[in-house]
Amino acid sequence: MSRLDKIVIACLSAIGVLILGVVIFWGTAIFMAKRTMWQAENYILALSDTEMQQWIARTETILNDNENTRHTFDDLVLPDGVRKPLTYYFREDHIVYHWCMGIACADLIVTRLPEGGHEIMFRGQRLYPKEPTTGNNP
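RE: above sequence
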């Protein structure tokens, strides 16, 4: 094996190791971000009525305060104790609670309804108030 062949093999090996390192790094980062958002989604979809009332009370405080259009409000504390930074966006009649981990983001929207009461939405799904079930629905 000539000296040139050894240099080519060494360069290709170094490039291969570098590519493998980048793939492992980004693969891990993407997996961790998605896992965190799955945890947040599970937390949101499992909110009890008491916890939803806490989100409504937090929203009323912000809507009544009416200072700015964007704040870093607090940390979202997931049931396993993991804390995630939470940003909210103020709109005239609702607050969008937004948290993001890398490439994965989630929004919880709490709206003050004109006729009174509140509505909580997550990914187009109405969480509060619950839709009344009828005998025709399975």
